[in-house]
Amino acid sequence: DTEVTQTPKHLVMGMTNKKSLKCEQHMGHRAMYWYKQKAKKPPELMFVYSYEKLSINESVPSRFSPECPNSSLLNLHLHALQPEDSALYLCASSWTSSSYEQYFGPGTRLTVT
Amino acid sequence: EDQVTQSPEALRLQEGESSSLNCSYTVSGLRGLFWYRQDPGKGPEFLFTLYSAGEEKEKERLKATLTKKESFLHITAPKPEDSATYLCAVHPDSNYQLIWGAGTKLIIKP
Question: Which of A34, A77, B34, B74 fits as disulfide partner to A65, beta carbons 3.0 to 4.6 Å?
Answer without folding.
Answer: A77
